[in-house]
Structures are given as structure tokens and as C-alpha cells.
Amino acid sequence: MVPGILGRKRGMTTIFSPEGTAIPVTVLEAGPCFVTQVRTPEREGYRAVQVGFEESKRLNKPERGHLKNLPPLQHLREFRLAEEEAPTIGDKVDVSIFAPGDLVDVVATSKGKGFAGVVKRHHFRGGPKTHGQSDRHRAPGSIGATTTPGRVLKGMRMAGHMGARRVTVKNLRVVRAEPERNLLLLEGAVPGPKSALVVVRKTNHRK
Asked: The whole model's pTM is what?
């Protein structure tokens, strides 16, 4: 069985448990995906499966050749396989691979915030508000010593581009899976804006 699936983030809502507890959930439209390639230790040196998601008319000839006898799938991702798992090319993957209560990891690209200062980007407290400090309220302060080392050390937290990076959120609980509507409801928040491409895989990081 394929251990993961691709989908789109559709937004957040609240549902209620049978006990009446409000549960914040993220709604994903996941799948259907198709197995496009199976990697084996004999040929590639590791065991994995490649799946595709969302059809597109704008594929070039190498891409169409790779997807011969398959739908023109736009997004391809790999998932590592255990030794006993052996899917075949063309197999369909939907949200039925998950069950309520399963723990999953979600990988997506976070929202881009553009150029941000250190207060917003790194949660600096800023400078003093009094004693003549009229323009240092959101400044980083000192970024290094003088003669020694005479430079700014690598990794110094400073202003810069914020967001728009790959983020993995681990151990999200599956609340509901609806294969007939290709919907997957996960407890909690998922990175990225609405319609963001997300990768959902069974977690290897058990709490």
C-alpha cells in the first residue's frame, strides 16, 4: 500500500465530536493519485513509489513519455516503501489509505510574507521605547563584536525574506476520510494558503 497522497488545501472549519467537543480541522481535497513509477533496490538502490496528481495539458514530450499509458499528471512525488509493499504502475491511490485516528505528516510550502524585519521574522523584542531611543523600536541591536572576530558570524538572525519555504508538520490526527468526495479532514493547521499543494504521508515520528 502506498503510504502517502497528494492534495490541495481547501481551508479550515470546525466540527464537533460525539461528546460535543469542538475540533478545528483543515480540509484537504486529496487524490485521486496514480502510481507512475516503482523504484527498486536492484535498479535505483532504494525502494520507493512515485505517484502523480492533477492532470495537465501542458506537459512536454519527456514528461508524456514518462507517463505513457497514464493520465497526463502534473505533480509527481515519491514515498519510501517497506519491503513487503509492492504497488504496480497505474494503481489508484485515494484517501481510503487513511483511517480516523491515524497520525500523518503534512509537507507544504508556507505562506510568503515578503521582506520582514527581525521583530516579525524572529520575534525580537525590539529596543527601548524611552531614553532618547526614537528610531530603534524594531531594530535588531548589535549584530557582532568589533576587532574580534571583525565580521558578522554566519547564521546571525537578521531581517530578510520570510515564509515561502518547505514546512513539515508532524503527527496530525486524521479526523475523517471521505473517499467518495476525495476529502481528508486533519486536526489542526496545515502550512500554506488555500489551494496550496500538500503531501500527506503516514508518520514515522510517533508521539
From this structure: 0.85
